[in-house]
Amino acid sequence: MYQWTTEAVSQGHPDKVADQISDAVLDAYLSIDPNLRVACECMLMNDLVVVAGEVSPCEPIDVEAVVRNVLKRIGYDRDDHSYNGNKVAILNKMTVQSPEIAQAVAKDDGSIGAGDQGIMFAYATDATKTFMPLAHHLAFKFINALEADISKNRNGDEWNSFFLPDAKTQVTIAYDDDNVPQYVETVVVSTQHRKDVSLKQLRDYVLSVIVPNVESAFPHLFTKDTRYLINPAGAWHFGGPAANTGLTGRKIVIDNYGGDCPIGGGAFSGKDPTKVDRSAAYMARYLAKNIVANGLCKEAKIQLSYAIGVEQPTSVRLITPSNDKHSDWKLAKKLFESVDLSPAGIIRQFDLRRPIYASTAAGGHFGRDEFPWERLDLNLNF
User: Fold this and answer.
1) What is the mean pLDDT of the chain?
2) Nearest residue to 24 via CA among 63, 59, 77
3) Residue 60, class by beta-carbon neighbours within 10 Å (0-12 exposed, 13-18 middle, 19+ buried)?
4) Residue 357 sits in the same domain as residue 259
5) What is the DSSP string of 200-231?
6) Residue 11 has pLDDT above 70, yes or no
7) Is residue 272 part of a domain?
8) Rounded CA gap, 72 and 103, in Å?
9) pLDDT at 324
10) Which terminus of the chain has a lower count of CB atoms within 10 Å, N or C?
């Protein structure tokens, strides 16, 4: 037997707020010109939001309005939520992209080179219907249930949910020696909550309302011995960016596959699709998911690598469990002959020059059917 753990965070977590601002700024630029190249970073603290980065020469956007809209949508729109998007100071330091980088990406012949060097990983498994790792999937199920409660009980200026925007969850699963999940051992739910809600009220509500929503979908995994730690540190009223500084790209493990797959190290949010640490990671996920969904293996890991200014990847690697249907090399060769892995090919495949990125910045970039890289439409009739 062994244990395996994954965590998730809500859209109100300071780092995720920064990601959402970066991607909202990206979407705003793409709305005025889909060919703009953008790299936007964000830092939030108790009384300030800093937006910085590079963009192709273009008409300015209203960065302050974008930031305030994100903060208010999440629920940081009043003083008693610790952070008030109507009042916080905003510093816009977006500048023009380096002409040398621009020249490396956009070629004279119209082709597109990779926006930077880097390695990208992807993963898929048949352990869940979303083809995502089980612990990662469950950790987000608890986050989704908390956020659904906020949405259901929020009506204009009224905030009737016990929960406030900032939250984290963690799920530990016990596996047998054959890597088969046996049961959920521990669930941690730490959530910011209203000052007029006692810790007992909060814990009772989570156990009676939130937990059953998740348990009912996985009854074979939750047992009488499953342990729930609800706000184990005690009451949590003061949260969000007021309590902890948020930075773009600091939750990249959560954005990907938890601990079940290596990550390349490049963040996604705030980057236009010529940046392959984003777009190629999406393509790699598409390939891995289609391989598993077609029954060619139970799980698949893929690594891609690129060099700045170069169209095609410098390496590709597919890793699957031992199976007698295809060797990894044979499968990889057939697979990568069937898709265009250049930045331009990936952009065309998923129609990525659109303002679609704000919705990716919280809840994970994978395992959600609304994204084009999650489609199961790759022809794998080898």
Assistant:
1) 93
2) 63
3) exposed
4) yes
5) HHHHHHIIIIIHHHHHTT-TTT--TT-EEEES
6) yes
7) yes
8) 38
9) 47
10) N
Q: Do 256 and 359 share a domain, yes or no?
A: yes
Confidence at residue 349, expressed as pLDDT on a 0 to 100 scale: 96
Per-residue confidence (pLDDT) for residue 27, from 0 to 100: 98
The residues that bridge with 54 in the sheet, in sequence order, are 39, 95
d(CA 140, CA 168): 9
147 near 10, Cβ under 8 Å? yes
pLDDT computed for residue 156 by the predictor: 82
- Same domain? 29 vs 71: yes
Question: How many residues in the chain?
Answer: 382
Same domain for 73 and 149? no
Domain that holds residue 277: 118-125+251-374
- The answer to whether position 333 is within a domain reads yes
141 and 222 in a single domain? The answer is: yes
Residues 6+ apart with CB under 8 A from 179: none
> Is residue 299 classed exposed, middle or buried when 0-12, 13-18 and 19+ CB atoms within 10 A define those classes?
buried
Return d(Cα 307, Cα 118) in angstroms, integer: 7
Verify that 149 and 59 share a domain, yes or no: no
Q: Is 110 left (phi over 0), alpha (psi -120 to 50) or beta?
A: left
Instruction: Report if residue 205 sits inside a domain.
Output: yes
Residue 326 reports pLDDT greater than 60: no
Task: Compute the distance between CA of residue 167 and CA of residue 143 in angstroms, rounded to an integer.
Answer: 7
Query: Which two structure tokens, joined as six digits, stand for 271?
Result: 């980057």
29 and 58 share one domain: yes
Query: Minimal CA–CA distance to 41: which of 28, 29, 57, 25?
Result: 25
Which domain CATH number covers 316?
Answer: 3.30.300.10
Same domain, 263 and 362: yes
Q: Which two tokens stand for residue 90?
A: 């905003």
Last-in-domain residue among 214, 239, 264: 239
How many domains does the chain fold into? 3
Residue 41 belongs to some domain of the structure: yes
User: Which DSSP string do the residues of 105-132 spell out, in sequence order?
Assistant: HB-TTS-B--SS-EEEEEEEETTSTTSS
Output the CA–CA distances (angstroms, integers) from residue 310 to 106, 305, 314, 318, 336, in the order listed: 10, 11, 8, 21, 17
264 sits in the region (left: phi over 0; alpha: psi -120 to 50; else beta) called alpha
Pairwise CA distance, residues 382 & 379, whole Å: 8
Residue 88's pLDDT band (boundaries 50, 70, 90)? very high
